[in-house]
């Protein structure tokens, strides 16, 4: 079984009626619903207002892949929880960062990304997500193009370190382009950033987006038999 934790700040759904109508079980609930159709997935959720944000050491020790959705409350995430997640990723836990999670403390800490260095606007543009690497495991079973009628627009330059791989590239009807699916490796952990998912649109109810997340979980899961690695001063014997 692949043990999954879906983390969401759960702010918009709790404070805005129009968002609650789109995600009555929260964004985390919609993501969980899409993932738990897989027989080998065990899915739990956690939110910002849970004790320790729902990310206790016990929870993280029993998480193979963590999905992270955040937008307005990045600074409210406790530094000690960020450190805890950071260590688990370096030890092999997979991390999938969604939409505005590029500005989260954990994504910035792991990648060195700048928090707000991209273009954005909320005008409901159409987005075309093009598959850049059809051989990648995250692309399994997907078409070469995912078209979303209305989404928040992001645009380059996206000031992140050069990704290990670019799996998806977006084009918006306003002319912007954006690296919407990027992978990174840190320590033993694998990280996937996936841009779609603004709270005002029912993105996480879509089957094609859910398939991306399922594929990403399988790609990001740890190698349970991976070798131990020594750092620092070391004598070979």
Explain this structure to me?
There is one protein chain. The chain is of the alpha/beta class and 237 residues long. The mean pLDDT is 95.
Give the tags.
single chain, 237 residues, alpha/beta, nine-stranded mixed β-sheet, 7 helices, 24% helix, globular
Give the CA-CA distance, first to last residue: 38 Å
- The proportion of residues forming helix, as a percent range, comes to 10-25%
What is the 3D form? Answer: globular
H-E string: EHHHEHEHEHEEEEEH
Rg over C-alpha atoms, rounded to the nearest angstrom: 17 Å
> Can you give the mean pLDDT?
95
Number of strands: 9
* Class by alpha and beta content: alpha/beta
Task: Give a summary of the structure in a few sentences.
With 237 residues, the chain is an alpha/beta fold. 24% of the residues lie in helices and 30% in strands. It has a nine-stranded mixed beta sheet.
Secondary-structure topology with pairs:
Layout: E1 2-8, H1 12-15, H2 17-22, H3 26-35, E2 41-47, H4 57-61, E3 65-69, H5 79-90, E4 94-98, H6 105-111, E5 119-131, E6 145-155, E7 165-172, E8 177-186, E9 189-194, H7 207-220
Parallel strand pairs: 1-2, 1-3, 3-4, 4-9
Antiparallel strand pairs: 5-6, 5-7, 7-8, 8-9
Helix pairs in contact: 5-6
């Amino acid at each position: 079984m692949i043990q999954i934790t879906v983390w969401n700040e759960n702010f918009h759904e709790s404070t805005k009626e129009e968002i609650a109508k789109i995600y009555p079980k929260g964004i985390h609930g919609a993501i969980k619903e899409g993932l738990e159709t897989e027989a080998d997935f065990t899915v739990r959720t956690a939110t910002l207002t849970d004790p320790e944000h729902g990310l206790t050491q016990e929870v993280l020790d029993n998480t193979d892949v963590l999905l992270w959705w955040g937008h307005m409350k990045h600074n409210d995430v406790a530094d000690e929880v960020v450190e805890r997640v950071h260590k688990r990723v370096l030890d092999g836990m997979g991390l999938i960062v969604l939409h505005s999670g590029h500005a989260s403390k954990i994504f910035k800490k792991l990648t060195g990304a700048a928090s707000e260095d991209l273009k954005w606007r909320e005008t409901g543009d159409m987005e075309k997500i093009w598959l850049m690497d059809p051989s990648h495991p995250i692309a399994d079973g997907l078409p070469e193009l995912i078209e979303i009628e209305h989404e928040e627009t992001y645009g380059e330059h996206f000031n992140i370190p050069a990704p290990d791989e670019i799996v998806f590239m977006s084009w918006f009807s306003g002319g912007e382009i954006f690296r919407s699916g990027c992978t990174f490796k840190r320590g033993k952990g694998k990280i996937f950033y996936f841009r779609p998912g603004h709270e005002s649109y029912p993105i996480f109810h879509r089957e094609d987006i859910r398939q991306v997340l399922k594929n990403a979980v399988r790609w990001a899961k740890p190698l349970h038999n991976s070798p131990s690695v020594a750092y620092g001063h070391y004598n070979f014997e």
